[in-house]
């Protein structure tokens, strides 16, 4: 199987993050910290939009086989055992499991550099692969 390289995975993650950064940036620019020091309603709404986009992109589209970033870089997210797309639920759980990758000083995100299947810890937990395709 032709596993995605670490730079490809990072690139796909960066592409996925761009719309989120833009939405949050708009919220900050329009309604960032006010005179009371706290963010306003518009900032809160743009943050919710960013969260909704992330959920749609990573869980819904990712569950169908590729988020926007993965699609842009020619990658697919598949179930290790079946070779098929994960579905929304398993893609969502995979994203939650990325917490484990980050909690140990982000070392879990570096696992694809030396792992034979180029999996993160979250990929190992949920039994997923990111492949070229």
How would you describe this structure to a colleague?
With 133 residues, the protein is mainly alpha-helical. It is 57% helix and 8% strand. It has a two-stranded antiparallel sheet with strand order 1-2. It contains five helices and two strands; from the N terminus they run H-H-H-E-H-H-E.
Task: Identify the overall geometry.
Answer: elongated
Largest sheet: 2 strands, antiparallel
**How is the largest sheet built, in terms of strand order?**
1-2
What percent of the residues sit in helical stretches (DSSP H or I)? Answer: 55-70%
Radius of gyration: 16 Å
Total helix count? 5
Helix/strand order, N-terminal first:
HHHEHHE
Measured by DSSP, the beta-strand proportion falls in 5-15%
What is the subunit arrangement here? single chain
How far the N terminus sits from the C terminus, by CA atoms, comes to: 10 Å
Tally of DSSP β-strands: 2
The chain-level mean pLDDT equals 95
Poorly predicted runs of 5 or more residues: none
Structural class, by secondary structure, is mainly alpha
Task: Write out key terms for the chains shown.
mainly alpha, two-stranded antiparallel ribbon, elongated, 133 residues
